[in-house]
Write a structure and sequence with these properties.
mainly alpha, disordered N terminus, two-stranded antiparallel ribbon
Length: 321
């Protein structure tokens, strides 16, 4: 029992740590997963065709296609993407200003590009795909002791060491060093450029934010807790509503002990109208009411519901912020 309690407490600590650092940890895990995937791909799947015309396409595809796939998956997995879609569907984006749209798209693209950029950078630093793609474009006249008159077909065979002519094997190391130098230089320049861009964007965000650092951190914690509690409560609500409907159909419902306790505690669940679902769905940016912060669409809905001001509810909940 003591061991189980210790494990439980440690799990809680790890969970709280991850929640407090959610964006940083999430991005780090994405990057590590991408590195692992890229390494596995190079070991098990990468196989340069060593053919003029095909090398270039294969090398670009090896770098670009997985990066594009990671980017699209990142877009699809981001909740803000579907908040934007809902905003446009429900409210026709009529209150979505240019600044708001730019900020929202920036957060969506910024999260989605982590895995894509990691894939591209690791590919360039390893140099295999770049070497495959650019080998046929190496100018033989720039190589020492390399016979003149060698065409692209010969140079394209360079990545496949066994296919390279025996009398030209001496130049193999020089070509490899040159192409890997170019590939890694581009990779490090890309890292430097993106790091500088992220730094400048963070500075711009802090300078243009109406909130202090402490309140921004609180807002982040609020949204994280609201999301967790909302999902947990929605799961229980859906279970109870389903149990009531099944009981009405069959005359009874087979529940676990925990579910029986929940049903006894909450005395059933009523369906929620689509209007209220739509009011708490969509894009939301920070706003205040009478000097008090409203941290989410749900927070705004609850505030106007407590005031029982239907007219203000209909007016305010139909706008963006």
């Amino acid at each position: 029992m003591a061991a189980a309690a210790l494990v439980k407490e440690n799990f809680k600590f790890v969970s709280l740590f991850f929640k407090s650092k959610d964006v940083m940890i999430f991005n780090g895990l994405i990057a590590l997963g991408t590195v692992a995937g890229q390494t596995a791909y190079n070991v098990f799947a990468f196989d340069c065709p060593c053919s003029s015309g095909r090398n270039y396409l294969y090398g670009l595809a090896a770098i670009g296609v997985p990066a594009l796939a990671f980017f699209l998956v990142g877009i699809m997995m981001n909740k803000s993407t579907w908040d934007l879609v809902s905003e446009c569907r429900l409210r026709k984006c009529r209150k979505l200003s240019g600044v708001t749209a730019f900020a929202l798209l920036g957060t969506i693209i910024g999260r989605a590009i982590v895995a894509s950029l990691t894939w591209v950078v690791i590919s360039l630093l390893r140099g295999q795909a770049y070497t495959c793609a650019l080998s046929e474009f190496v100018d033989p006249s720039t190589l020492e002791s390399f016979p003149s008159g060698q065409g692209t077909e010969v140079m394209a065979k360079f990545p496949c060491e066994g296919s390279f002519p025996t009398d030209l094997q001496g130049s193999w190391a020089e070509i490899e060093r040159r192409l890997k130098y170019e590939s890694q230089l581009i990779g490090w320049l890309l890292v430097a450029g993106m790091s500088l861009m992220v730094f400048l964007l963070l500075c711009l965000k802090r300078c243009s934010s109406p909130l202090g650092y402490q309140q921004e951190d609180y807002w982040s914690q609020y949204r994280s807790n609201e999301k967790t509690l909302f999902q947990r409560t929605a799961a229980v609500h859906a279970r109870l509503l389903a149990a009531e409907n099944i009981k009405n159909f069959f005359g009874f419902v087979a529940l676990e002990q925990e579910e029986k306790e929940q049903l006894a505690e909450h005395q059933g669940a009523s369906p929620i109208c689509s209007t209220n679902w739509n009011r708490v769905t969509g894009v939301y940016l920070y706003r205040e009411k009478n000097g008090l912060p409203l941290y989410s669409r749900l927070n705004k809905w609850a505030t106007y519901s407590l005031e029982n001001n239907v007219e203000a509810m209909e007016k305010e909940m139909d706008v963006l912020a």
